[in-house]
Amino acid sequence: MAMTVKTDVDQPQAQEILARITDMQPWLREQQAVAEQQRRIPQESIERLDAAGVFTLTTPRRYGGADFSTRELHDIYRALGAGCGATGWMVWAAAGGNLWSFSFADDVMAPVYQSPWVGNRTFAVGGTSRRMSGTARQVDGGWLVKGAWPFATGSIHASHGFLAVFYDETDDTKVGMVLVPKDALVSRNDWDAMGLAATGSQTVATDGELFVPDERFSTPTQLGARLKEQTEQGRGPRRGGLARSLVTGTGVALGMADHALELFLAGVGKRSIPYSSYAKQLDAPITHLTVGRAHSQIRAAGLVADAAVAELDRLDTEGLDPSEREALQFHTDVAYVWDACSAAVESLFHSSGASAIIRRQPLQLIARNCRAGSLHSAHSIDTWMENVGRALCGAEAMPTSTSVLERRS
After folding, report:
1. 204-205 and 186-187: which strand pairing?
2. Reported pTM
3. Using one digit for the tens of pLDDT, what is the confidence trace for 62-89?
């Protein structure tokens, strides 16, 4: 029997959620060090975020989720990043899993979203390579899945996960996603990183082979067809796919940079510069140059992000998905924003003197979190500068690895 799906759920409003996050920023900032020590977002923070409606950002609307523009999502992530970069990253990364929810039947997904739960309902992981994914072999009624999936951001707080699986030993295009209850997986608690440690991005794995019924298996082709169908019915997500997700995520980088500049300016009148004639750092021209450059880097990064956000919202309004060339530019813009924000934060950290390395000083944590985010494979500045450079020069495109969301077979 198919489950009845609610379609008249009151939708959250972006400005309300943004205001709640802004009010929550002092709490998130106070909890940053605790979160890093625990290597996860503290449960009380998860509860506060849930009460604020943060985990509805990309949930399908028929399950009470939001229908926010790219602008609204970006602004929310920027506010989260200004509170705690690791929290912003976890919320953003976990939100991406909701896109796969459109690929499965309502009677499969409704119990996931309609059961009582605090935190993100789903997470998604794997697909760029066999090393990052599991395998699946078809049996009567479903699939036997096994493997380990590293960097499972959001898995700690989720009830279900979407896991990438290769289902043909000889063909790397044969990759799909399976929906698995989180309690059916083993958590390895192996996430111990120099930055974004609080995201809890541990490895999850099967204990031997795990049976997954057919209705909980999907492919990128099926996802694309389902998204098209849902969009035509007015029940689908906004257009833009992975490019849109990455562009909204630049808000996390900009939020961290905003916080770093705020911290530096708050202390510039109190610090001295030892072994110099400046009793106050505020009096030194090098300080003014550092602040000016960091401000300009953050502002330039913000303008690049704003342009990408506006273009995605324009395409969505016109009912268009980004072309391959547009998606390439969006990816490059994202890498630029992360690199520029990280550079700005590190320059402020460098100019804060030796006392800034003390762990109770938040600037060192922001610098590590922002740099870690910029090193993510989707944000690699060198990769995307080369890719867009090849396109501009008319050079033949090189074969590239893609995420499961970008595959079409």
Report:
1. antiparallel
2. 0.92
3. 888 888 999 999 999 999 999 999 999 9
